[in-house]
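Supplementary Text 2. Reproducibility record for the structural model of the 121-residue chain.

All settings were left at their defaults, and a single model was retained for analysis rather than an ensemble. We include the record here because the model underlies the residue-level annotations in Supplementary Table 4.
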Amino acid sequence: MHLSTAHHAHPRTPGEEQFALAAELLALLGDRTRLTLLHALTAGEADVTTLTEACGAARPAVSQHLARLRLAGLVGTRKEGRRVVYSLRHGHLRRLVGEALKVADHRLAETAADGATAAES
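Retained model, structure tokens:
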């Protein structure tokens, strides 16, 4: 059986469609609650109650954010009895969320260093 890598290969220069979809994805990640929900899901599957506790938002708001993420194809769901369990649909999201948080860490460190330098002056 031969598996073609062409389907998963990324062109050297992304096209308009890739830029448009990436912009939509980043806009969804631009919301703090949705980013927190995705970060919580990097640890594994979770239900709405667990995710509500993780992000500290009201349950109706969490449900609405999860619905947007599901409609965008970023999270999947499955039934477990009466509970709905959410999970990340793509491993790439785990890395993307992690990288976004690393950039935030670097920016915070730079801001702290700039503040310390200014205080010494």
